[in-house]
Give the backbone structure.
Amino acid sequence: MWLNKFEKLIELNIELFSGTRNQSRLLKIYNCLETKREKLEAGDLDENKIKPAKKYINAESEDRYFSFYEVQKEVDRMTTDREKIVFLTKEKFAYNRAVIDLENKHLPSYPDECDKLINEIHTLAKLQEEEKSTELSEKSTVDFFNKVKTNLKVNQLVDIFIQLQREYFVDSRPAIEAENSEIVQLICNNFTDKDGNSISPQTVKTIMMPSKPEKRPKGSNIVDISKHF
């Protein structure tokens, strides 16, 4: 209140500060007022702050106490990792600069606790970033190309690849050289059935098994690709 009144008094007598030297003095007065106001406001905040129980205080100096219990709660209220790390780093430096009068031997070291929490924040951020990158990579792998819808029956489509893999040759080599698992992946990643549904890898595997010839199309249902060779 007295600061505000003093500032008002200066404003009412502003003509006394005309001239270069007096202008400089006026600026110094205003700077002092603001500095004093900030100190008083900070003091009010400190007075209103309830000191935690001794079991939650890691250490005390002449000027302040260090409670990681309170620090943890303050960090939980922050929204960004950067803000948390800056706050914890400042607390650690403040402790290292302070002359410690009393240290609670039942609690871990205050700066060590700050370091552990900083490391935890870094580790979690890295894991979240890796998880996000993996999700984006998987999504791009799945969604980069639209699957092609086939109006053939699934066993007809699979049978075409079986013919190319096992029955038709180019210069004594199979028309396509691929393992069964590679063909399963190729079909399932690139085709849907006539209803737009994904094709089951297990279904494709079963059709391709030499021991399951009954799963392949018969008679007129066979898509004959021999005319192309």
User: Anything to note?
Assistant: The chain has a mean pLDDT of 87. The first strand starts at residue 59 and ends at 61.
